[in-house]
Design brief:
By secondary structure, the chain is α/β, with parallel strands linked by helices. Among the domains are: 16-104 and 148-247, Aldehyde Dehydrogenase, Chain A, domain 1, CATH 3.40.605; 286-476, Aldehyde Dehydrogenase, Chain A, domain 2, CATH 3.40.309. It contains 21 helices and 18 strands. It has helices spanning 16-35, 38-67, 74-99, 125-130, 150-156, 177-187, 205-211, 213-217, 228-236, 249-256, 260-269, 297-312, 334-346, 358-368, 399-402, 420-433, 447-453, 455-463, 476-481, 537-549, 556-564, and strands at residues 108-112, 115-121, 135-140, 164-169, 191-196, 221-224, 242-246, 277-281, 286-290, 322-328, 373-375, 386-392, 409-415, 440-444, 468-471, 485-487, 503-505, 513-519. The strands form three sheets. The protein has an eleven-stranded mixed beta sheet. Strands 6-5-4-7-8 form a five-stranded parallel beta sheet, with helices on both faces. Helix 6 links the parallel strand 4 and strand 5 (191-196). The longest helix has 30 residues, at 38-67. The chain is globular. The two termini are 32 Å apart. The mean pLDDT is 97.
Length: 566
């Protein structure tokens, strides 16, 4: 008998005839959405903030049942932090951007070697108070200006388009992803949406529908359920003009090229089966670059906790979960750090591996690396141990570098280097050219080393070809801030899609984002919310969700006190 809570019952697939009726309703709503003013759109999003707040507890509780989290557990807190909090913040930032006519104020812009960079966080003293020392910058594609809100500029100039109908194929891991993808398609791409929930977390769908009820009632959003049959009917439907998917590159290719040998031939010939615009976020073998330095014992312990959390958060089912831990062979503290990482993982309770193929994935990777290390006590057949693949090679074709382990596995990789400059000179091309995907990368560097490196470090950041870069924090913060963009580094063609095309989030509506860089202090106090040993993340997630619904200086002391208990 399982020690994890039983999941809610599955939801019946939406009948094909009902899918057609839903698309017909969206076809009626499409011109109404296109004609709706930015101010009226903002009012709809403000209304969604109220309905989201009303279902926040039910939302998190349902997600917990899906994932096997006990009420009051650390996982329960994650379902606020990565669920309702992120959605509430997205709603607020988009509402504020629309209230500014699609031109929200950028705190700062500047150029580096001719490339524009826009500071998008902090936006206010309130941001600075709650997120001390954290900044977020969006780098603009070379040759482009830091312009914002293209569709709203076009509408004011009388050049507005006809919008469209987008099918959003929702992610199964984080419950905030499907509604946030919908919000981006509506606000930035001017398209009404039908959201097909992923069967893994479909039970959250009715709650999301209630949370976004103002958009549903206005005719701008529909929800659907089911598997491949429903998904293909939607993607192939004549009324659908675009597709957005968060999932795997295999699912993406099945949509665009088709399954089996026929799909492989179409891909080879460059003849996709669908002629529709598709955007996507498809995962990554996300590296963590540990820049060698002289770290204090408390600093080693802190970043071992953080690195272990980058894997254990959401049981390893995150597209930005840490996968490759990269260290320098000549770093005197290397062995101590890696030992601490394993100790932190061993002390982290194992979780239900709720994704259907998780065990098969784990078996495939551990067969490839029979000398793997398993950590943590497994007391239930539906859980898997945290697993470390040690001494993974760096050559092209290395299995762990080219395949995303969708479960609680990461790899230790060693690069021949004796100091920080030599390490960065090798780690940047290794990350760019050897690790599959371009969604997310984490860089850990102490301030003393960073200062000594000077421009060498800044150039390393500039050279990284990743859509989300975090320095001294996890790219989960890139995702959750919403000010940042979320998506692959630009340039993946359809026949070699890797992490996908396009972005979401982008709370300040920048038109030509290349990548987002989030920086945090080397050691943050109190304990960051994404640490899986946080002692009060449930109360913090609830408090922050309420704060985002109505920010106020009066709420800051209470949030600070809650955070200090972490």
């Amino acid at each position: 008998m399982s020690s994890f809570p039983a999941p809610p019952p599955p939801i019946d697939p939406t009948p094909i005839a009902e899918l057609d009726r839903k698309l017909a309703r969206l076809a009626e709503g499409r011109p109404k959405w296109v004609a709706l003013s930015a101010a009226d759109r903002a009012r709809l999003l403000r209304a969604c903030m109220l309905t989201t707040a009303a279902v926040a507890d039910e939302w998190a509780a349902t997600a917990c049942r899906i994932k096997g989290y006990q009420p009051g557990s650390n996982g329960h807190g994650e379902e606020y932090l990565g669920g309702t909090l992120a959605v509430m913040r997205n709603l607020r930032l988009f509402a504020e951007a629309l209230e500014a006519g699609g031109q929200p104020k950028l705190p700062r812009t500047w150029q580096r070697d001719g490339q524009w960079i826009a500071r998008v966080f902090p936006q206010s003293m309130l941001d600075g108070a709650l997120f001390t020392g954290i900044t977020c910058d969006i780098w603009i594609e070379p040759g482009k200006e830091p312009t914002q809100g293209a569709i709203y500029r076009d509408k004011r100039a009388g050049k507005g388009g006809d919008g469209g109908i987008s099918v959003v194929l929702g992610a199964g891991n984080q419950s905030s992803i499907p509604p946030m993808d919908v919000l981006y398609k509506l606000v930035v791409d001017d398209e009404v949406c039908i959201l097909k929930m992923n069967p893994v977390n479909e039970q959250v769908g009715p709650i999301i529908e209630t949370a976004l009820r103002p958009l549903v009632d206005a005719g701008f959003l529909e929800l659907a359920y089911g598997g491949i049959e429903q998904g293909q009917h939607l993607t192939d439907h004549a009324l659908v003009t675009s597709i957005h998917i968060t999932g795997s590159d295999r699912a993406h290719d099945a949509i665009i090229w088709g399954p089996g040998d026929a799909g492989l031939q179409r891909k080879k010939d460059g003849t996709p089966r669908l002629d529709k615009h598709i955007t996507s976020e498809l995962g990554c073998v996300s590296p963590v670059l540990i820049v060698p330095g002289d770290w204090k014992p408390a600093e080693l312990d802190y970043h071992a906790r953080q690195t272990a959390s980058m894997l254990a958060y959401n049981c390893g089912f995150n597209c930005n979960g840490a996968r490759i831990i990269v260290t320098a062979s000549g770093w005197p503290q290397r062995e101590r750090f890696l030992t601490l990482v394993k100790e932190k993982l061993a002390a982290t309770p194992t979780r239900k591996a709720y994704y259907p193929a998780a065990k098969a994935t784990w078996e495939r990777f551990t067969e490839q690396y029979p000398e793997h290390t398993t950590l943590g006590e497994v007391t239930d057949d539906s859980a898997l141990p945290w697993t470390v693949l040690e001494n993974v090679g760096t050559d092209e074709g290395e299995y762990a570098l080219g395949n995303e382990p969708w479960c609680g596995i990461f790899s230790f990789v060693e690069l021949p280097a004796t100091d920080a400059a030599e390490f960065l000179a090798k780690a940047v091309p290794f990350a760019n050219d050897r690790c599959w995907g371009t969604l997310s990368i984490n860089v850990i560097v102490d301030p003393r080393t960073e200062k000594a490196l000077g421009e060498t470090f800044e150039q390393a950041v500039a050279d990284l070809r990743y859509g989300g870069i975090s320095i001294n924090c996890w790219t989960g913060l890139n995702y959750g801030l919403v000010n940042a963009t979320w998506g692959a580094f630009p340039g993946h063609p359809l026949d070699d899609i890797e992490s996908g095309q396009g972005v979401v989030h982008n709370g300040l509506l920048l038109d030509h984002p290349q990548k987002s860089v989030v920086r945090a202090p080397f050691v943050m106090k109190p304990t960051p919310a994404w640490f899986t040993d946080h002692k009060n993340n449930l109360a913090l997630g609830k408090a922050m969700t309420k704060f985002e619904g109505n920010p106020s200086w009066l709420k800051v002391p209470g949030i600070a006190l809650t955070a200090l208990k972490g």
